[in-house]
UniProtKB/TrEMBL annotation:
Keywords: ATP-binding, DNA-binding, Nucleotide-binding. Residues 135-354 form the Sigma-54 factor interaction domain. The lineage of its organism: Bacteria, Pseudomonadati, Myxococcota, Myxococcia, Myxococcales. This is Sigma 54-interacting transcriptional regulator. InterPro entries: AAA+_ATPase (IPR003593), AAA_lid_NorR (IPR058031), FHA_dom (IPR000253), Homeodomain-like_sf (IPR009057), P-loop_NTPase (IPR027417), Sigma_54_int (IPR002078), Sigma_54_int_dom_ATP-bd_1 (IPR025662), Sigma_54_int_dom_ATP-bd_2 (IPR025943).
Length: 448
């Protein structure tokens, strides 16, 4: 593994070498119950309502394996696979037909429009499986994401993961590390939202004994601890502006200088960072350095919110539950906004395990914003807990029951604590006897 810093031009070149010259590709666009979609066609592209299809159409009038697009030397074809409601090209029912840019293809009640676009993408556009390491997802957007992760994990390029809270950014960072040649090396997480400004430099680069008053012993920073592996900079948008040039210098020189030391130490790390913010708008607002942004975003990855790929919910529920979910649980997860994304879905499933889907729904799993968390809601939460306890379905193991109730109790405690302290984390942590960093994590975990 190269330990010397790749100069920016090399970074650009190595990215360019992964890209093919622009070519024209066929795309189809459609609107269904899950929203608007555009997908690039491969040599053979299966279309249906089954989650395993390359193009998944959320429409019950579309058969699970409805039709196939395929190319041959004469052009692009659509072939009906014996679907229930048929495939139509310009309103004529077809078994197989050649189609061209602009053609309208109707499958059941959904119309797909054929278009084209210039692209430089190479490699498999869709990951062939519904899993990538610990991540699950069979939707087109997740399988496209998995294909990018697989492709870039093998490189040493810096990856910037952007997505709403609970979309799986940390899990993605781990999956990238595990799929990379550095997988035997360490994976070190720095939660930039939880590090006090004064300790940032020491947290990242370490310090020598006596570097500052509380430095009673030398301490290794995250970069040295991750030597040979990956540093995951979570919530990178919270990195104080004063730290940004220091981080940039380390990324450029691939050396760190612990606080209080004059010695520069060489480190060999891969950087993966994540944020729920749009760093580009922060750059425009002067809150984030443009040069650092480009250093971090060698490969920008956008993780879709759960509401944009609701077809993945059943698979996620099954994975979280560890077995085929009962129909009433699946029904309870449908048509909800899931503002807290997969984390909120996980919390909901854990509550539903303890009290059943209906009670879990009544207890409210939706993310509440600071502005909307009121004392009356807290009281409602408390009575919901009390009534939920009365109707516990003692179906699961003791361990599952206990864990689910701990979650409920934890959330209730934190809600009251934060309300009492007007969301002042330091004050709340003091009263609760918790470390501020830990409280911060709990608050994020429960979407409070
Ligand atoms: N695609 C997925 N497959 C399986 N589990 C997932 C997936 N995405 C997220 N999760 C689960 O959802 C929860 C939240 O994921 P994670 O902590 O990675 O989100 P995040 O985007 O980093 O959140 P935050 O921005 O709040 O830190 C975790 O329990 C994680 O295991």
């Amino acid at each position: 593994m190269p330990s010397n810093p790749p100069p920016p031009q090399t970074l650009v070149n190595s990215l360019a070498s992964l890209q093919a010259p622009p070519t024209r590709r066929s795309i189809v666009s459609w609107v269904d119950a899950a929203g608007e979609h555009t997908v690039q066609l491969q040599d053979r592209t299966l279309v249906g309502s089954a989650a395993e299809s390359a193009i998944v159409i959320a429409d019950p009038t579309v058969s699970r394996l409805h039709a196939e697009f395929h190319f041959d030397e004469r052009g692009l074809w659509v072939r009906d696979l014996g679907s229930r409601n048929g495939t139509f090209v310009e309103n004529v029912m077809v078994r197989e037909a050649r189609i061209e840019t602009g053609s309208k293809i109707r499958m059941g009640g959904t119309t797909l429009k054929l278009g084209s676009e210039m692209t430089t993408e190479v490699g498999p556009q869709f990951w062939p499986a519904h899993r990538f390491g610990p991540l699950v997802g069979g939707s087109a957007s997740m399988r496209r994401l998995f294909a990018s992760l697989a492709r870039f994990a093998a490189t040493d390029l810096s990856i910037l993961i952007q997505g709403e809270t609970g979309t799986g950014k940390e899990l993605i960072a781990r999956a990238v590390h595990d799929a990379s040649p550095r997988k035997q090396g360490p994976f070190v997480i720095v939660d930039c939202a939880a590090v006090p400004d004064a300790l940032f430099e020491s947290e990242l680069f370490g310090h020598v004994k006596g570097a500052f008053t509380s430095a009673v012993a030398a301490r290794e920073g995250a970069f040295e601890a991750a030597d040979g592996g990956t540093v995951f900079l979570d919530e990178i948008g919270e990195l104080p502006i004063a730290m940004q040039p220091k981080l940039l210098r380390v990324l450029e020189s691939r050396t760190v200088r612990p606080v209080g030391s004059s010695e520069h130490r060489r480190v060999d790390v891969r950087i993966v960072s994540a944020t729920h913010r749009d760093l580009r708008t922060m750059v425009n607002a002067g809150a984030f350095r443009e040069d650092l942004y480009f250093r971090l975003a060698g490969v920008p990855i956008l993780v879709p919110p759960l509401r944009e790929h609701p077809e993945d919910i059943p698979l996620l529920v099954e994975t979280i539950l560890g077995r085929v979910p009962p129909p009433e649980l699946l029904a309870a997860t449908a048509n909800r906004p899931w503002l807290g994304n997969v984390r909120e879905l996980r919390n909901f499933i854990e509550r539903a395990r303890a009290v059943g889907p209906q009670q879990a729904l009544q207890m409210g799993g939706q993310a509440s914003t600071p502005e909307t968390t009121t004392t009356s809601q807290t009281a409602e939460g408390a009575s919901a807990v009390t009534s939920a306890l009365k109707s516990v379905a003692f179906k699961q193991s003791f361990r599952e029951f206990r864990d689910a109730w701990l979650e409920i109790g934890e959330r209730e405690y934190l809600t009251r604590l934060l309300t009492q302290h007007s969301r002042n984390i330091s004050g709340a942590a003091r009263e609760a006897g918790l470390d501020r960093t830990y409280l911060h994590r709990l608050v994020r975990k429960h979407l409070l």
